[in-house]
C-alpha cells in the first residue's frame, strides 16, 4: 500500500485523492478575486471538504501565464491567516509557493505539504536558506515537485520544443534525487508534470497519453488539468476563441478521470463535487481489494 508521508498525515494513495484548490488571490486565471479574504477563503475550503476534497492546496500568488511576481510580504499576508485556520480542519493542508521564506513560515504554522512550481530551485530573496534547504531541513513535510519550463512571465511566449515527455521525466527525476540527497525520503515526494506550464497543447496531451512513462521512476503523480487553457482549446470546436475557464468544468473532470485511469494518485481541481462524482463511478469498475 502506498502512502504520501506529510507533516501530520500519512495519506493513503491506494485510492486516488482529490486536492481542492483554495486561491487567496485577486488575479488567478480561473477564480481570481472570488475568495481573496481569509473569511471567504475559509468558507470555500470548508465547502470543498463537504464536496469531497481529501486535502486542500492554499495559494497566495497567481502563476498564470504572464502573471507578475508577488512581493514576499504580500504573499505572507494572504497565506498565513488562512493557513492558521485551515490546519484546524482535520485534513492535510498544502501551501502552493516557490518562496523559501513562505515555505518556512508555512511549515512553522503547521502546513503538511509544500507544493512548488519551481521544484525547490529558488534562492532566498534575503540571502537566507534556499527552498531546497528549507524542505530538506524539515523532518516530515510532504513535497510536490513540479516541472515548469522557463517562468510564469515567459513560459507561454516561448514554450518547450520537442518531445516533452522525456524532458519532463528527466527533470523531475533529477529534482527528486537532489531532495533525497538532503535526507528527504522518497515516501515524502510526489511529482507533478506541470500541465500548462510552458508546454504546447500537443505536449500537454502527450503528457496525459504517455503518463505511464512519468510513473516509471516510482513516485506518485499529482496532476493539475483543472480549467487549463489546453482544455479550452480542445473544447473550442468551431468557436472563434477557446472556452473561458469557467466553462471548462466538464473537460476538466474528463481530464482528471483520464489521468487517474492512467495512474495519477492525486488530482488538483477547482470542481471538487463533479470530480468526486466521476471518481465514484470509476471506482465501481475497479477490482475489490482482498481482505
Rg is 18 Å
As a percent range, the share of helical residues equals: 25-40%
Would you tell me the structural class of the helices and strands? alpha/beta
Number of domains: 1
Largest sheet: 8 strands, parallel
How much of the residues is beta strand, in percent? 5-15%
CATH top level assignment = Alpha Beta
- The CATH superfamily title: Dihydropteroate synthase-like
The assembly state of the depicted protein chains is: single chain
CATH fold category name: TIM Barrel
Q: How many β strands by DSSP? A: 10
Strand order of the largest sheet: 8-7-6-5-4-3-10-9
- The best one-word shape is globular
Count of DSSP helices? 10
Distance between the termini: 13 Å
pLDDT averaged residue by residue? 93
Question: CATH architecture, please?
Answer: Alpha-Beta Barrel
Describe the structure.
The structure is a single chain. The protein contains 10 helices and 10 strands. The strands form 2 sheets. An 8-stranded parallel sheet has the order 8-7-6-5-4-3-10-9. It has a two-stranded antiparallel ribbon with strand order 1-2. It has 291 residues and is α/β, with parallel strands linked by helices. The longest helix has 17 residues, at 164-180. α1 packs parallel to α10 and α2 (72-86) runs parallel beside α3 (100-108). It has a single domain, classed as Dihydropteroate synthase-like (TIM Barrel, Alpha-Beta Barrel). It is globular and about 50 Å long. The chain starts with a strand and ends in an 8-residue tail after the last helix. α1 (38-51) links the parallel β3 and β4.
In short:
The protein is α/β, with parallel strands linked by helices and 291 residues long.
Amino acid at each position: 500500500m502506498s502512502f504520501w508521508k506529510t507533516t501530520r498525515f500519512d495519506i493513503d494513495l491506494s485510492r486516488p485523492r482529490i486536492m481542492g484548490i483554495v486561491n487567496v488571490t485577486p488575479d488567478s486565471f480561473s477564480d481570481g478575486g472570488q475568495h481573496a479574504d481569509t473569511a471567504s477563503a475559509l468558507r470555500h475550503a470548508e465547502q470543498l471538504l463537504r464536496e469531497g476534497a481529501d486535502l486542500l492546496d492554499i495559494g497566495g500568488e497567481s502563476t498564470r501565464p504572464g502573471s507578475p511576481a508577488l512581493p514576499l510580504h504580500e504573499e505572507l499576508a494572504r497565506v498565513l491567516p488562512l493557513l492558521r485556520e485551515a490546519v484546524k480542519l482535520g485534513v492535510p493542508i498544502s501551501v502552493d509557493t516557490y518562496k523559501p521564506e513562505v515555505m518556512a513560515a508555512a511549515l512553522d504554522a503547521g502546513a503538511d505539504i509544500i507544493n512548488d512550481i519551481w521544484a525547490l530551485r529558488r534562492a532566498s530573496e534575503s540571502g537566507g536558506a534556499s527552498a531546497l534547504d528549507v524542505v530538506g531541513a524539515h523532518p516530515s513535510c510532504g513535497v510536490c515537485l513540479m516541472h515548469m519550463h522557463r517562468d510564469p512571465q515567459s513560459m507561454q511566449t516561448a514554450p518547450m520544443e520537442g518531445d516533452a515527455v522525456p524532458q519532463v521525466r528527466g527533470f523531475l527525476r533529477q529534482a527528486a534525487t537532489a531532495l533525497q540527497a538532503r535526507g528527504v525520503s522518497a515516501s515524502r515526494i510526489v511529482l507533478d508534470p506541470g500541465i500548462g506550464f510552458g508546454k504546447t497543447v500537443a505536449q500537454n496531451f502527450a503528457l496525459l497519453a504517455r503518463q505511464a512513462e512519468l510513473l516509471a521512476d516510482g513516485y506518485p503523480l499529482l496532476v493539475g488539468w483543472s480549467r487549463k487553457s489546453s482544455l479550452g482549446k480542445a473544447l473550442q470546436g468551431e468557436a472563434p476563441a477557446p472556452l473561458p475557464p469557467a466553462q471548462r468544468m466538464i473537460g476538466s473532470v474528463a481530464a482528471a478521470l483520464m489521468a487517474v485511469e492512467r495512474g495519477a494518485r492525486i488530482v488538483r481541481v477547482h470542481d471538487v463535487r463533479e470530480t468526486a462524482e466521476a471518481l465514484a463511478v470509476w471506482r465501481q469498475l475497479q477490482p475489490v481489494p482482498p481482505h
